[in-house]
Amino acid sequence: MSRWKPAHAEAFDHAFRGVILIGFAALIIILWQTGDMLLYIAPNVVPYVVAASVVLLVLAVSQFRLAALSLWQRVIVCDCGHEHESDNADHNHERSNRLLRKVGVYGLFLLPLLLSAALPSTAFAGSLAVNKGMNMGASVPIDDGKADMELVELEGNVDPGLKELFRTQPYNLDYAKLGMLLYQQDTIEMKDQWFIEKLEAINRFVDNFQGKTITITGFVYRDKQLAGGQLIVGRMAMTHCIADIAPYGMIVELPDADAYPDDAWITVTGTIGKTQLGERQIMKIVATSIEEAQPSAVPYVYPDNDFASKI
């Protein structure tokens, strides 16, 4: 004969998985609503992560349904006087090992949820640059020995003198186009948009920008190769997520550089010059004014591979 008996263990497994899935979905939604998600992933990835939270909710509902269905399972009652489950019963030590495995697996999923609830959302700054090193844009060799290399001229309705000034090799055309745009500005503002691209363009054509006024806001960082009276004002750049962030910055020259502590945020206005770093020539800013600044809510900048098509 047969009857139905509660199967609480299996139902608990499904229900607990559903709770974990809801926890991750809720975490994504909270980060999205508060804006803290941009501390971990780039804006172009956000729609995919939000869509993933919907999938997680659907999976959670599925787990709760399985939990309800598994609350009752068939058992067999025989003449021997005790019950046998339709599945073969595990030995006690096997059940114990299975329990330990479940605790370990569930713990791996619960740990990030607990840490996200206990720890505040923070952004990385100069401390990460110590390990990754500061990127200061493309360098111009002091003597590359290729002065006779064939150069090409930018196409388009541009002042002939400006086109001649930014004649370059084919792989530099996009940065030449941006360089011409920056060259015509009274003050070059290193805002979040195209921060990396502007840094690259100025460094690739650093001779053209000598004496131009520029302003930049970022955190203070120091490198062992810097000369006295120099510091770096940098920003953290993110391509896809926090795992690929990298620091970018510009050398700033000022008399009282030691007065500004590492990781302090400042706004620097000055004129563009160039300096030698190792065997490279890169841009520098000769500061004319410095002000304390507050980091933005999302202190990262993002590369734009299609910037040239937007100019």
TrEMBL record:
InterPro entries: DUF1980, DUF1980_C, DUF1980_N, UPF0703_membrane_permease. The keyword Lyase does not apply. The chain crosses the membrane at residues 12-33, 45-64, 105-130. Keywords: Membrane, Transmembrane, Transmembrane helix. It holds the Pfam family DUF1980_C. Residues 16-135, 167-303 form the DUF1980 domain. The keyword Membrane applies. NCBIfam families: TIGR03943 family putative permease subunit. This is Putative repeat protein (TIGR03943 family).
